[in-house]
Amino acid sequence: MVKKMQVEIAKTAGFCFGVKRAVNLANKAPDKYPGLQIRTLGPIIHNPQVVNQLATLGIKQVGDINELGQGVVIIRSHGITKQLAQELEQRPNLTVIDATCPFVRRAQEIVEEMSETGYQVLILGELDHPEVAGLISYGDPQRTLVISKPADIPAEFFTKRKTSRIALLAQTTLSQQLYNKIVLSLLTIKGELRCFNTICTATSDRQSEALELAKKCDCMLIIGGRNSANTNRLHELCEERQPASYHIETAEDLQTEWIADKKTVGISAGASTPRWLIDEVLKRLQDLS
């Protein structure tokens, strides 16, 4: 048992618009396409509990396009590569449901437009993230570069005499603070710079609110999938401000000693975390106190 504590849940915690849209499209698919095999190409969102829940409806994930047969395929919220999308459209007897987040789709369009007009495209993000892999595919391979920190910016951008034309954008779930640092670093380049802040507004709002909670709470619980980039980032940001910050996937991960002597506990959650998981954590806290 722990002492009675005050618990505050961030208003922005849980599903963002893009994730909610993707999950709704998936939930409606069995009724819309009765009798057909329905698959997602990769996890539709980065939350294993939601992925498992969809599996109970018969919607399972495959890791490769060659595992798809006839029926229905749902493109995950992170999007896929341009080449893969074209190949899916050409498959006979395969219906494609595009659940790509509109914010991700807009970023893809920016990469394509900037590449076609001759810009060197810088994508601030995680090289191995599926969203970034999709973004890269919309650009010129010779003029598209992924960076993760200011030190990754090529030195030649600042020193070469030839005028540069650089377009910067970001993975939609990235830290706003990091994006701002990159912009400041690029302001001294020799040439033209176009900056597109493609970070989803829900992501930046969620990060700001979580940081405010971390300042005033004795402990922070960040709920979400271990494979969720935005959830991991929320945890990292909160931990910088409140060392007693913990990333959990479910209520079972909560350890009593984390909250035993805490008066205030803040809760935030990644954009792929359903409300029912947040409610389970809240109930677990209430039971403990």
Give a brief rundown of this model.
The chain has 289 residues and is α/β, with parallel strands linked by helices. The chain is built from 11 helices and 12 strands.
Kindly describe this structure.
This protein is an alpha/beta fold and 289 residues long. It has 3 domains: 6-14 and 201-288, Cobalt-precorrin-4 Transmethylase, domain 1, CATH 3.40.1010.20; 17-101, Rossmann fold; 103-195, Cobalt-precorrin-4 Transmethylase, domain 1 (3-Layer(aba) Sandwich). The protein contains 11 helices and 12 strands. It has helices spanning 17-32, 48-55, 82-89, 102-116, 130-137, 156-159, 176-186, 201-216, 229-241, 256-259, 275-288; strands at 6-9, 38-41, 59-62, 71-75, 94-98, 120-124, 144-147, 164-170, 191-195, 219-223, 245-248, 264-269. The strands form 3 sheets. The chain has a 4-stranded parallel β-sheet with strand order 1-12-10-11, sandwiched between helices. Helix 7 links the parallel strand 8 (164-170) and strand 9 (191-195). The longest helix has 16 residues, at 17-32. It is flat.
